[in-house]
Automatic annotation (TrEMBL):
Residues 1-20 form the signal peptide. Residues 15-218 form the Hydroxyproline O-arabinosyltransferase-like domain. It comes from Urochloa decumbens. The keyword Transmembrane applies. This is Hydroxyproline O-arabinosyltransferase-like domain-containing protein. GO terms for molecular function: glycosyltransferase activity. Its main location: membrane. The keyword Lyase does not apply. Keywords: Glycosyltransferase, Membrane, Signal, Transferase, Transmembrane, Transmembrane helix. Pfam families: HPAT.
């Protein structure tokens, strides 16, 4: 489910890899947040290994350690040393397949199954992540940019023209990636009405900045 950015490794044989998704906008230069054998990851509120002890134990048996070893993360965004990812990746694949083939696990984890599989696979290799809440924000629920590096536009942003959030109900003003399944968003999207938080305004401005500067935007390139 995730797109990984491997390019730099082919081009420059770099030491670290950033795994990120295509719905990430970088709002400032991203330094290497990892330190040697400690990768950096974003903690997701909806990845809760402790609440799924019974299922997790199928893949992370008691003798390995407490369930709290499993970080509340997915594989994106993550910055990790290439040699560590080389160790984790085959396990990650196997754990994903085992989870998918187990009905209870598949049902419990659903679309976040590979995220759990990554978290479990890293724990199986004794790898713990530095949890960086400032790695990214997720509008409309995070309203301020604070000192974040990435805006993740996973949720739809719906607002009334008075600037009130109408989450779950199509707003008079909206930005939702799901509106653009057939092609790229048009250039020069209308900015949100007054009162809409900084995070959403910045998101739309950045999309406009990209579309204004990419000559082949309309071709989806
Ligand atoms: C993954 O599963 C295959 C098939 O069961 C096995 O041969 C292989 O050793 C496993 N690899 C890892 C890293 O667990
Ligand atoms: C973008 O649209 C606004 C009106 O919504 C217009 O005033 C402005 O000139 C447009 N900018 C560009 C670069 O097309």
């Amino acid at each position: 489910m995730d797109l990984c950015f491997w390019y730099c490794c082919f081009l420059f044989s770099c030491k670290y890899i950033l795994m990120a998704e295509p719905d990430h906008i970088f709002v400032k230069p991203l330094p290497n947040l990892a330190y040697d054998n400690d990768p950096a990851a974003f903690p997701f509120f909806y990845i809760t290994p402790l609440e799924h002890e019974k299922v997790i134990r199928k893949y992370y048996p008691k003798e390995r350690g407490p369930v709290s070893d499993i970080d509340p993360i997915g594989n994106s965004p993550v910055i990790i040393k290439k040699t560590l990812l080389e160790k984790i990746a085959p396990t990650w694949m196997n754990v994903s397949i085992q989870m998918k083939e187990d009905e209870e696990t598949d049902k419990t984890f659903g679309w976040v199954l590979e995220m759990y599989a990554y978290a479990v696979a890293s724990a199986l290799h004794g790898v713990q992540h530095i949890l960086r809440k400032d790695f990214m924000i997720q509008p409309p629920f995070d309203t301020k940019l604070e000192n974040t590096f990435i805006i993740h536009f996973t949720y739809g942003c719906d607002y009334s023209l008075k600037g009130e959030l109408t989450y779950g109900k199509i707003g008079e003003w909206r930005f939702d990636k799901r509106s653009f399944l057939d092609g790229p968003p048009p250039r020069n999207l209308t900015l949100p009405p007054p009162g809409v938080p900084e995070s959403v305004v910045t998101l739309v401005k950045k999309v406009n900045e990209a579309s204004a500067n990419l000559p082949r935007w309309d071709d989806g390139i």
